[in-house]
């Protein structure tokens, strides 16, 4: 995607050392169509040990992907 089509706030944040552009990219990757099948398969393995993992598309798109979370 050309830089001129990116959200200016995300670009400015990145120029200042922020992570919002990376967070948006990762959210789009995990929450997007490409991993839809994987998310569906993983629902069969949801259990007490991983119940707090991100499972829903809306959660994946909204996450800031903090390390260790």
Give an overview in words:
By secondary structure, the chain is an all-alpha fold. It has one domain. The chain has four helices and no strands. It is elongated. It starts with 7 loop residues before the first helix and ends in a 7-residue tail after the last helix. The mean pLDDT is 85.
Helix and strand element order: HHHH
Low-confidence stretches: none
Judging from the principal axes of the Cα atoms, what is the shape? elongated
Average pLDDT, to the nearest integer? 85
In what range is the share of β-strand residues? Answer: under 5%
Distance between the termini: 28 Å
Domain module count = 1
Bin the helical content. Answer: 40-55%
Question: Could you give a short description of this structure?
Answer:
This protein has helices spanning 8-15, 20-31, 36-42, 57-62. The chain has 69 residues and is mostly helical. The protein has one domain (8-62).
Keywords:
69 residues
How is the topology of this model organized?
Layout (H helix, E strand, L loop, with lengths): L7 H8 L4 H12 L4 H7 L14 H6 L7
